[in-house]
Amino acid sequence: MSLAWMLAKWPFVTPIPGSRKAERIEENLGATDVELTPEELAGIEEELVQIKIHGNRTDEAIANLRVS
């Protein structure tokens, strides 16, 4: 589901999940067949904003590259 969400949100991004077994690769490729409805996407977003992030998630040098 997370790969389908990423593909729906950022179609120009290609997620490359780690896979050590052929069955996991096949499972991950199945995300391209999942079409999330606008309601499902909204529901996922509503849940994600409730997750509290702890700690720094960017390197200081990368953070300085951000355009405001």
Describe the structure.
The longest helix is centred in the middle third of the chain and has 11 residues, at 38-48. The protein is an all-alpha fold and 68 residues long. The mean pLDDT is 84. It starts with a helix and ends with a helix. It has one domain (2-65). 0% of the residues are buried. The protein contains 4 helices and no strands.
Proportion of helical residues:
40-55%
What would the principal axes of the Cα set say about the shape? extended
Total number of beta strands: 0
What count of structural domains? 1
Please indicate the percent range of residues in DSSP E strands (runs of 2 or more).
under 5%
List its traits:
about 70 residues; 4 helices; extended
Write the layout of secondary structure elements.
Elements: H1 2-9, H2 22-29, H3 38-48, H4 60-65
In short:
The protein is mostly helical and 68 residues long. It has one domain. Helices cover 49% and strands 0% of the residues.
